[in-house]
Amino acid sequence: MSNRWLGALIPLVIVGAWEGLWHFESLRMDSLSRPSDVLVALYHGLAGGTLLVATVETFEAALLGFLVAAAIGLIVGIALGLTPWLESVVGPSIDAMRPVPSVALIPLALMIFGFGVRMEAAVVAFACLWPILIVTISAVRSVDTSLLNVARVLEMTAWQRMVKIVLPAALARIAVGLQLALAISLVVAVTVEIVLNPRGLGHGMMSAQQAMRFDQMYAQLLWIGVVGWGLSAGSQALLNICSPAYRAERSKERA
Amino acid sequence: MSARTRWLNRIGAIGFALLLLATWQLLAMLEVISPLFFPSPTRTLGELWSQIVSGKIWEPFSETVLRMFYGWLVASLLGVGLGALIAGSRTSRQLFTPTLEFLRPMPASAIIPVAILAFGLTNKMSTAVIAFGSIWPVLLAAVQGFSSVEPRLLEVADAMRMNAWDRFRKVSLPSAMPDILAGARVGLAIALILAVVTEMQASLPGLGQSILMAQRSYRTPELYAGVVMLGVIGFGASMLLQWIERCILRWRSVQ
Fold it and tell me: Hey, is the C-beta of A3 within 8 angstroms of any chain B C-beta?
């Protein structure tokens, strides 16, 4: 129990000092709203629904992009993982495209799709594609060759081999890649909104800052932190519950 | 893999890349997508070449590279320092972990509005944002690296009556180095992304601003040239760090 309290110490000290600073007229900074005001703004944002609407908008784009990336990444990744010669042919082209920072595509996506959910999702999809693709290729590649030999002995068709052998064996590692990409999707969605897309949480923060409503800005920042933390904790929990292979892998690591 | 198949693969890889470029060229020539959005590779590369020859691209190029480097350097030094501190004792680990766990999934770009308030639209702002964003991989890797130092090495250090600084410099740091460098490489990719984001958001000079300007005035080949250049930066930076990694860690392979 004392461990928990120790962990809460730093946030409490920061918030306490922040609130305390506000009570000294000479030290007060207008751009640093009082923590209590921030909490009030957070409450109003949540109760009034504006924050929730913005959250839904952000998640809409993030998840759409994530799903597109997952579909492409899994299909291409499995294909490349199963056929090494194809991977060595296509791989260098992938390696050449991968280092392009996703945000560099914001102007391009804006030109093609205009403002809105589609351009945001496109940038998110580009950013999420690479981790999913890379992890899938290496996960499929590391499937035990004796399992593949079993499939050959049983004269399985390509489809059966995929569904019954390759996917279950590679699932644990693929799931970790998907989890990573999910975290990236939220980050990129918020980034696109902050840079120029007029929707969602990122835009809400920018417009609160430009309207000098700093309490609202900090409230949104706090909320984005909560949402990001919730997404990472939620995906971790989902992984633990849904994937027995993942659990097995973890317990193997612990042993 | 025999020498012959390796050559075949290499030829295949080049062939595939050329095929991609040819498809792009063909699509652009047939005007499947408006050439306004989708200039052919020859036009893009021609634009890039003329910018390289005229020297127009070097100024934004060097601005972006320096911005990325400064932010990354601050993040790496802070990350190693904080990592050593946190891994130093159980109490400090308990003290810091919850705060860091909350901050880590937070999209780094979400602190841009706050950073603009604190520093204005300046280079300091972009350095702060980049440092905040790219510190996490280094920090986590450093904590991991410093906590897994071989205990016997530390006992030797104690037996030799090393002072704390020598112990850090001669024992802990070298043994945590592989983890730190791997984290720093991930951090560098994030630093490039955030450099571009801050340039777009705050109109700071650099490739991010150039490609946004190119998009606004519909100079698409220039936009593509900038994106290619950013890819080159990302690739080059990662290669450079890999080379440094090999040089620094040479002693490990001797063991």
Answer: yes
